[in-house]
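Appendix C reproduces, verbatim, an entry submitted by the partner laboratory led by Prof. M.T., so that reviewers can inspect both the input and the predicted structure.
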Amino acid sequence: MTDKAHHKKHISADKSNTLLLIAACISVLLPHFWHVHLWVSIACTLTLGWRIWLTLSGRRLPPMWLLLPVCLLMMAGIFLSFRTFFGKEAGVTMLVLLLACKLLEMHAKRDLFVVLFLAFFLLLTSYFYQQTIGVALLSLCAVGLLLSAQISFQYTGILPPLRQRLRAGFSMLGLALPLMLCAFFLFPRIQGPLWGLPGDAGQGRSGLSNSMTPGGISNLVLSEEIAFRVKFDQAPPIKNLQYWRGIVMTDYDGKTWTPGRRYQHDASQLVVTGQPLRQLIILEPHSQHWLFALELSQHNPRFTDGTDSVMNNVSELRSRTALQQRIRYEVESYPDFRLDAQADLQDMASELSLPVGFNPRTQAYARELRQQQGSHQAYIQAVLQHFRQQNFIYTLEPARLGRDAIDDFLFSTRAGFCEHYASAFVVLMRAAGIPARIVTGYQGGNLNTVDGYFEVRQSDAHAWAEVWLSGQGWTRVDPTAAVAPERVMQNLSRALPASGLAGLVNLALQGNSFSQALRMQWDAMNNNWNQWVLNYNQQGQQSLLSKLGWKDVDWIQMTWILFLAGSLILGVISLPLLLNKPAIPALDRVYFSFCHRMARKALPRKPHEGPQAYLLRLQARLAPEEWHRAKAFIDYYSLCCYGKQAGSDAASLKQLKQLLSACK
């Protein structure tokens, strides 16, 4: 009966350890589920569920002939999804599946270490995707669980309770935190990312594209990700003036708009008046070159990290390198400006051209309407009036358009998003002989009252038009405002009906609610995290060291500072642990004194020997009289420690010391 109970207890301990390890692996895999393909998440969930079921039911792990086809099928899925086994995306996906499958193939202690080390490594790869506070907290939790699981598998006897093992694992993590903070602040910083994988540079992130087709921006506005944050040194402009200029597109093939020829900007073609609006912009990485600012900037931005930029002939602000990291820059914008007012109409062939054989009804309608108007301004107003009066609908879910997309939009569906209206407007302008082009960027934003930053999200993505008028230059015209003025004057949720997919966007953007207040708090925390933690670069490190009295420190001196500071922290952490030695009972101290005397006579006690075993060995080496005195001492010590009246009262301690004195 006792053996059965012991066996049952052993199995329960093994199950407990395995379930703790699975929980730790789930915490490691959880951040990846939002970024890998759906089939990968489903495969990992099924694999982990399979492993949990096997553990709880006490069944054997699956044989190799069953696991091998499953693994080969997963590898085939990776190749079909990425067409390669190399690169960041394919490599991380392979590691995710490998960790899930390895849990089904744990037959030796070596397999346990493989799972643990693989989990630690995979935990680092979650920072490829995002580095928010939530990811950092989840990583700390995962490390604590992995350490607890690693400790659990080291016990060979009685397994401590789960709470005690978790406390031990997270205590180890807590002891490492001071050294981690020391390394964060003092480890020599290098410019650029710490890692880079070939073949991933072209991986785009959420943001505007360098081309525009119907549906592109309407898909983007479903995202609530932050595009950039802005801090004004004065009151921000009113809502309908918040146009964040990004990409200018002039070339049109009948379906897609793309940027045209660019060259260095001639500052003499830009005339500004009034006071500038100064902005501090924190731009999220988007793997492209363009920068954003209020219309219109006269000079290049001022960067805090050495980024170089250029302003071209269409007044775009562009970085010379792709933006793979978050950047900060200051820029000045002038709401009152004239751009290319003295330009020659003959130099605007690209702003007047239309593809041959596309949209014949639109071009015929434009020529007819232009003949009825006396000026370009009157024609522009007539087109905007047409949008207002002909029951056009502003929607995220427009009908599918055919080959002649503009014809279908203007005369059939009459439903679209900002890119539909901007595209149709520019085609109508060009068909009437008025130079026009499309500008994409962002419109609007919301002030975060917690930290005072103006937040512009992907849902604020917008497209508008520019027309060139003699003596006025390029003038902004937003045809979307003619159909849905709420989009420009307020926000997207006011312009869209509260139904279907648009209703979800409307619900997400509702203001003055408890959820909106929580989101502002969270966004403010992430903003502070980005500025003080993620943006702690080489310049910030040098500034910190200067405040501490170290100026012009090179990397060798920095390494010494890190070594000395780390050693000091380790000493402070270790000292209480070394001083916190368990107190030795008084009886044991007397016994150890006896052993020390015997060691001086070349008769040391072996580490594994108990008192009686030691006494038997002394019998063969000591004289009879000496051995009898040693026997009296050890017998009395054993009686005091292990007898029925065991204790360490003063009388017993005194008697034991007297027996020790007799052992000369």
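Residues 1-10, 194-205, 498-507 have pLDDT under 50 and may be disordered. Additional entries are available on request from the coordinating office.
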